Queue: 2 jobs
Job 1
Amino acid sequence: MKNIIEILNWYKLSGIDTIAADEPYNALQQTIPAENKPEVSVNSSPVRPATTLLAQESNSACLNAKEKCAQASTLDELKNILEKFEGCSLKFSANSTVFGDGNAHARVMLIGEAPGADEDRMGKPFVGRSGQLLEKMLASIGLNRRDCYISNILPWRPPGNRTPTDGEIAVCLPFLLRQIELVEPKVIFLLGASAANAILGNNESISSMRGKLMELQLNNGKKTAAFASFHPAYLLRSSAQKAKSWNDLLRLKRYLEDE
Ligand code: URA
């Protein structure tokens, strides 16, 4: 029994918080076919307390994160607070806390989804293959990473680079929003749909968001301009989209030049 609890705890720490049966079944059916019934019934009540508890924990972790972030008046203070924060289980499976990096007074802030294996090892955002392409993209419009501030929605690598859950995004978002407030960039450039959806609070595809000048309302009452474009990891797989990405970079360049 103790072993089972340890295994379940390990899954939870790794971000796996749902138990699925081997075969799919229609949960709306009154009866579950006998062969699909899980051997261990975790909870048979219609409202599963484990899920509710998780949702409650996640909700209070979000409130806690927001309160803590509001106390930070510099990026260094915010980084310290994040390093001590334990409200997101991704922290326990990651090697590093990958805070934003670059120019604290940058006019442009680039935001990706989450650290990958290289970033987790080095403790810095966008240092792997995607980062190398990102640097070339920046160079094509006369920028380098020291001109920019680079961060991610999540400061911890999800195990195996899996897609972050909504709960993980919600808990980590206050740290990113506070970075935006402290850096006060003229414009943010959102890399990929996940980053754009998380920041803009929508569910739109990257194709429908790119090419438009958008606006982000911050908690401190200020606003910042935003563009969304393809994630460099996607461009590495789909080079046919590089022409569109180039147009997006030119739009960013023109916006930065326009005072
Ligand atoms: N992909 C991201 O979204 N962020 C990184 O830091 C690296 C790869």
Job 2
Amino acid sequence: MIKFTNANIYRNSDATEILVKDGVIQQIGNNLPAAEEEIDLKGRLIVPPYVDSHLHLDYVYTGGGDDAKNATGTLFEGIARWHDVKKTQTFEDAKSRMLKGIQEEVSKGVQYIRTHIDVCDPDLTGLKAMLELREELKDNVTIQIVAFPQEGMYAYKGAVELMEEALKMGADCVGGIPHFEWAYEFGQDSVRKTVELALKYDKLIDVHCDETDDPMSRHVQLLNALVMIEDIGTRTAASHTCSFGSADDAYAFRMMGLFEQSQMNFIALPTENAYLQGRQDTYPKRRGLTRVKEFWENGINISFGQDSINDPWYPAGNGNMMNILDNGIHLAQTMSLPQLDVCLDFITFNGAKTLNIEEEYGIEVGRAANFLVLDAISPFEAVRQRADVLASIRNGKYLFKKPEPSYDIELDLFRSTI
Ligand code: FE2
């Protein structure tokens, strides 16, 4: 039995103690029974593990070579560069890069990842490597795999068959990229196929949807309608939806009501799309973000993801979800004081809802003792300070624990001179 004391639990301000046995939370409250081991958290904020709801693990660390150079900094050139880069991909290379990418994320507090894996590959090399890693690492990190036709469900010959193969092999979600198809009608066909495959194989849906500044890219309308008809909105996510940030207000008003009805999830990728979008604009220059603030204020579920770690689309990225949150709330202008108290939801609870893991996620009695200790005393302070993750605990055990921060400068002395 382990007792964590002096905790400030996110979304549970009444309790300060957590009692854990055999990796499961037994009690949450105050003045709980003594335990063999007691860990004083010194008033720090405890949050459920970070969820990265959108990442491309097969692409990580491929951004450095000449083949990967994306001169225009656009999504479309990124796809062309990846087409060349993946020709050299081997199983061993893919698996070792993916492992390193997962390690980077987990070392910063992520315990849940949804990764898109390109299935436009007759050998399905990346998928095979990812399936192995998902199993090998399941005690340390929960991974969902999206069968993703990066080069188009119809633009790439044989992609639909490869999608089906990937779903049979164990991918969790059906993906799509309708705005990349060669004609709008093909994009619409791909949305229909995505929903058809999800129903056929009983899978979740996560579509790269309207990742363009073109305000007339409106595939999200059909996706939303189809999943509403099938009553699978909560099992569906629309990623990016950048065009919705450029869309006409009358269309957006109509769609907002329909999104509320379908309960479909949205995923924004703040750093990635700030970098990739607006490339055809002079000034004013768009920042590529969907209507995050309006979704959030209307109760439509939206989470943030990393998307890329050093690949042909985006040179940076390190799995630090606090950095993603920081960028996202600035770009979305969701920084009122009440919003700052709850915006950690973008990288925790909202991501869990998108992944359909709500029943196992969160700091609650009877659930796995999975949580983070942040170097801050409140949600506001965590966000204001971009707080570091001091410890990540999974099934009651440390995935990592950092030493107490110490300072070379005597801060009190320093303060007295200013
Ligand atoms: Fe993506």
